[in-house]
Specification:
mainly alpha, about 0% strand, two-stranded antiparallel ribbon, flat, about 300 residues
Length: about 300
C-alpha cells in the first residue's frame, strides 16, 4: 500500500483515493528494468505512437530511454557483485536504423564495455593493503574466487549469440573497435584462467586459514598450524602456473601476518596488560606477553625453515 499524499489524513471517506494498492516484485530494480524494457520501451519507440513528433524528438527519446536501461542494468549487476555489460537497443529498433546509426550505437556499446572490463582487469588483491586495511588470507581467497566468477560471467556475455552478431556487424562495417575488442577478449580469457588457477591453489589452504583466523584453535596452539601452512605455500610456489610470483607471495605472507597480529590483539591488548599490572597481577601479564612473543617468533623461524 502507498499513501498518495503525505499530508492528507486517512479517513473513511478518502481511503479509496489516498491509498493506492500496487504489486512490487521482490527485486525492485529488476522489476523496473523489466517493466521499462518490455512495457514502456516498445510503446514509446513504436512509430504509430509518435504521431506529430519530430525525428529529433523520437531519436532523443529512444537514446535517453536506452541510456536509462543501460545504467539500470549495470547497477543490477553491481548489487549482485558481478559486471553486467549493457546491450544496445532492442533488435527491432536496430533494424529500423540506417547503417551509420546502427554502427554508432554498437560502437558506443563497445566503448562502455571496454571501460567496465578494464576496470575489472585493473583490480588488485593488494588494493586493501594499499588503502591501509589489514586483510587476512581468507580475503585473498575471496578476491580470486570473486574475480574468477566475475570474469567468467563477462566471458559468457561477450560470447553470447547476440554480442557475437554485433561484433560481426562491426567487422563488416570495418570498425576499428571490432579488432580492439577482440584483443580485449583474449586478455579477459587469460585473466580468467589466472584467477581460476589462483583460487584453486589457494582453496587447498582455506581450512588452515580458517583455523588461523578464527577462534577454533587457541592462540598458544597456533604454532602447530605454521608448518603445514608454510608447506602448502611452498607447494603453491613450486606448482602453481600463475601464483608463483614474488608480488603474490609477499601479499599472502603479509596477510598471514595480519591474521596472527589480529589473533594476538584478541589474546592480549594494551588495556588488558595495564589492568593486570594495576591490579598487581604482574605474573599473568608477563605470561601473556611471553606467549605472544613466542608465537610470533615461531612464525619467523618456520618461514625461515620453509625458505631453506
Amino acid at each position: 500500500m502507498i499513501k498518495a499524499h503525505r499530508v492528507a489524513p486517512i479517513t473513511e471517506e478518502n481511503f479509496g483515493r489516498e491509498i493506492v494498492f500496487v504489486e512490487i516484485y521482490k527485486n525492485p530494480l529488476e522489476c523496473i528494468s523489466k517493466v521499462t524494457q518490455d512495457g514502456f520501451f516498445p510503446v514509446l519507440s513504436n512509430q504509430d505512437n509518435q504521431a506529430g513528433w519530430s525525428e529529433l524528438i523520437s531519436k532523443d527519446l529512444v537514446e535517453n530511454l536506452n541510456g536509462f536501461l543501460s545504467q539500470l542494468y549495470v547497477i543490477i549487476g553491481q548489487v549482485a557483485g558481478r559486471t553486467q555489460l549493457p546491450l544496445p537497443v532492442q533488435d527491432e529498433t536496430m533494424r529500423k536504423m540506417n547503417n551509420k546509426e546502427r554502427v554508432h550505437i554498437l560502437e558506443t556499446a563497445i566503448i562502455t564495455w571496454q571501460k567496465q572490463i578494464k576496470a575489472v582487469l585493473s583490480q588488485d588483491p593488494e588494493s586493501l593493503l594499499k588503502q591501509g586495511h589489514d586483510p587476512n588470507p581468507l580475503k585473498e581467497i575471496e578476491f580470486w574466487h570473486n574475480r574468477a566468477k566475475n570474469l567468467e560471467h563477462i566471458l559468457k556475455q561477450i560470447n553470447s549469440d547476440r554480442v557475437l552478431k554485433y561484433l560481426k556487424d562491426l567487422e563488416r562495417a570495418k570498425s576499428a573497435y571490432s579488432k580492439n575488442f577482440n584483443e580485449l577478449k583474449k586478455e579477459i580469457t587469460k585473466s580468467y584462467r589466472e584467477a581460476d588457477s589462483n583460487f584453486m591453489c589457494l582453496a587447498t589452504v582455506s581450512g588452515l586459514f580458517d583455523d588461523l583466523v578464527g577462534d577454533s584453535v587457541e592462540f598458544n596452539k597456533l604454532p602447530e598450524l605454521f608448518q603445514p601452512i608454510m608447506h602448502m605455500v611452498s607447494l603453491i610456489w613450486t606448482q602453481s602456473s600463475h601464483y608463483n610470483t614474488i608480488p603474490r607471495l609477499v601479499v599472502l605472507i603479509r596477510e598471514i601476518c595480519n591474521a596472527i597480529i589480529s589473533r594476538a590483539k584478541r589474546f592480549v591488548d594494551g588495556g588488558m596488560i595495564f589492568a593486570m599490572i594495576t591490579s598487581g597481577d604482574n605474573e599473568e601479564a608477563q605470561t601473556k606477553l611471553t606467549v605472544t612473543y613466542d608465537v610470533c617468533t615461531c612464525l619467523l623461524y618456520t618461514s625461515d625453515a620453509a625458505d631453506e
